Amino acid sequence: MSRVKIKKFVPKKVFKAIVFSSAIPILIFIAISAFVALVTSQSVDSSFITKLLYIAFSPLAYGAVAMIFAASYNWLAPKLGELEIEISDEGNRE
């Protein structure tokens, strides 16, 4: 077992990771919601479209919040101490 210290996060990379990881489930949710709205033959009103747009843009908001967290970690980590992760390399032994 060895310990690795996380010294810094790159906010742009954190943003991309959050956007890509949250976009897939949200797009699936939007597709299912649109399908259910069409199948149940409910009238699609402006509030439904507003909700779908809000959900569609939520990955960008999550990414922006993650960038703020990454920047604050980069600023505070040298003062308060970095995160440490304990890893094992048992799978790489031959």
Summary tags:
single chain, 94 residues, mainly alpha, 2 helices, 2 strands
Helix content: 55-70%
The major sheet is characterized as: 2 strands, antiparallel
Measured by DSSP, the beta-strand proportion falls in 5-15%
| Multimerization state | single chain
- Figure out the total of helices: 2
User: Which descriptor suits the 3D outline?
Assistant: elongated
Q: What would you say this structure looks like, in words?
A:
With 94 residues, this protein is mostly helical. Helices cover 68% and strands 11% of the residues. It has 2 helices and 2 strands; from the N terminus they run βααβ. It has helices at residues 11-39, 46-80, and strands at 2-6, 83-87. A two-stranded antiparallel sheet has the order 1-2. The protein is elongated and about 60 Å long. The two termini are 16 Å apart.
Give a nutshell description of this structure.
With about 90 residues, this protein is mostly helical. It has helices at about 10-40, 45-80; strands at about 1-5, 85.
Write the layout of secondary structure elements.
Blueprint: E1 2-6, H1 11-39, H2 46-80, E2 83-87
Antiparallel strand pairs: 1-2
Helix pairs in contact: 1-2
